[in-house]
Each structure stands twice: as C-alpha cells, then as structure tokens.
Design goal:
The protein is α+β, with helices and mostly antiparallel strands and 247 residues long. It is 35% helix and 23% strand. The protein is built from eight helices and eight strands; from the N terminus they run βββαββαααβββαααα. It has a five-stranded mixed β-barrel. A three-stranded antiparallel sheet has the order 7-6-8. Helix 2 runs antiparallel to helix 3 and helix 2 packs parallel to helix 4. It is elongated, with a radius of gyration of 20 Å. The chain starts with a strand and ends in a 15-residue tail after the last helix.
Length: 247
Amino acid sequence: MRYAAEPAFVLHARPWRETSLLVEVLSADHGRIGLVARGVLGPRKHLLRAALQPLQSIRFDALQKGELAQLTAAEAVDAAPLLQGDAAMGAFYVNELCLRLAPRHVPQPELHAAYAQVRERLRAGEPLAWTLRRFERDLLEALGVGLAFGLEADGVAVDPAARYRLDPEEGPRRLYSERTGERRDTATGRALRALAADVLPDAEDLASLRLPLRGVLLHHLGGRGLKSWEMLGELGRLGAPRPPAAA
C-alpha cells in the first residue's frame, strides 16, 4: 500500500540504527502508522528531521510493506506548538495515550480531529487540566468507549450535589456512603455535568475528575499505567489549584 501526501500528526520518534528514525504518526484515514525514516540523521536532512518531531502536523509519502511503512518523503504543514514545563508534559501525556490506545491501521477521523483540537488548545495556553480532561473524554468517544458523563448508569440525570465513581463500562455510579479514602477517587456531579456540557467547572470540581478518569483509562490500558504518570509521580498537580507564586 502506498501513502501519498497523507496528512498526519507525529506522536513519537526515536533513533534507529545510525542514521534512521522509527516514527509513529496518527492519520485520519489510516489511524496510527509506524514509519521507518531512513537516513534522516545526516547533515543535509535537517528539514526532514524537523518535520518528524512530536506534535508536528505533516504530509508524508510512504510504502507499506509489513508492520512498518518505509517513509519516502515528509513535509511540515505548519509550525508545531512550542511548549515548556507542564504544557510540554501534557503534550507528552496526550501522545502517549494515543500511542497506547489507538490501534494501527484503523481509520480514526474523530481521534485525528480531537488531536488537532488539543494541539491548538496547548498552543493557545488554555487551562491545562481542563484541556487534558476534555481530550480524555474525546479520546474515549473517538475510540468507541465513551461515557455519558451527564447520566447515571441507569439513565437518570447526574445529581450536581452528589459524588460519583466512574464505571469504565457503564458510566457514573452514585456514591451513597463514603469509606475512608474513597472520596478522592470520585468526581462531583457538578464536574461530570460540566464535562458533558463542555463547560469549564470551578477548580475544585475540575480536580475531582482526574482520578476517576484515570481509572477509566487504566481499564482500557489493560491495567498497565503510563510512563507520563510515573514521570510526574502525581499528574494531579496539573489538575489541582496552584498555590500563589512565591515572591
């Protein structure tokens, strides 16, 4: 199979042998594709190397001859977002989710669109925790395992005053009594309704979404966590209200 001027986003690239790269991209029509980019680490290939950096939007030509396609050409469509600090870590997290959950060679137009959107939200510096929660929601929906966040598992509207666990298969389940430590793994009804309506909740409600959504993602990851979770130790700092900056 040949790819010609195929639009995609670069998820990951790593050196392979002396002068080549192994690259993972996300395309709309063919889903996640693994590419072998030969000879791109030479002194005259800096433009091609730049086009193969994570977050970059590209068009590429390649020939599929097995699990990995042979890259023959690639060009950047625009400039990738220049991110630092937490935003860069958030982008790493987004890319890792796509790498782990998007199947190879399965059309993913909704996920491709969601990736384009989160990329621009990161570029614009929108609130990071909200940007990530929206992407997690949209990723699950694009992969066909989305939840009706505004409805309890039995179809009743979520109560904004209650707290909920998120069942990965059935959605919000109301918490009627709390055992020690149980509250931290539940979301407020207000937060779930806000997520369903795509309306930014207040900081406390927003923070309550992180662990329940992580549990849903962990279920679909087969119980094996993400490197980004390990690297941050607590990705929750992206979802918690920040203390005032020290003078």
